Amino acid sequence: MDWEEITLGNGNVNQGHFYLPKGTTLFPLDSWGGNNKTKMGAQFSVTFPGTGETTKTDIDGKKRLLRETRGESKRFIAHHKLKPGDKVFIHKKGERDFLVSKRPPESPTFEAWAEDFDNQIKKALSTSEEERKKQLQKATGKSEKTTVTTTVFKRNPYVVAEALIRANGICERCKSNAPFERKSDGTPYLEVHHKQPLSENGQDTVTNAIALCPNCHRELHFGKNA
Ligand SMILES: [Zn+2]
Ligand SMILES: [Zn+2]
Fold this sequence. Notes:
At1g16640 B3 domain, binds zinc ion, 10 strands, five-stranded mixed sheet, His-Me finger endonuclease fold, alpha+beta
């Protein structure tokens, strides 16, 4: 992700501080300084649309906030009439060029989000047991929402229906019975897949469709030998 979301607390609004999320990797590593000006990090620029101000700052690594943007942040918060609970977004525009806005950045595509999450899982899997324990201990168990954009192909329901009727409750790949029946209407649960994906110019036709059990379907999309 090339942005971070900050939910404003009373402290942010009153003090004009933007506390940065824990573990953020948005900012250059050398910009994380100490807790006073004798231990400054390298500066980057931050622009505040609305008030039109741009300033240079490093990060107070102890308090995890933008050291030099207090006045600008306060004026930005006042200009946009932000209250505790509102969100601000810090977008990365360049290596040392950031922008604060009250609007969410354009949502990532679902695929970009999923790839990013996949990479986070890979990273988690490769950390030490000690580190994994530490991460789990500090977790609150609460999950925040995020928004992604999904672009879909419009599919022909008659193609799906025809493939399901043809399969008659049996996976057309492994020939096993559908693993369960649908809660909604008791019909066997199979998923209709396109042999040649629509995204690769496959046709939405009965001959390009195959009714699959969920295992076969996942394997065709994610399996090593698919
Ligand atoms: Zn199957
Ligand atoms: Zn599929």
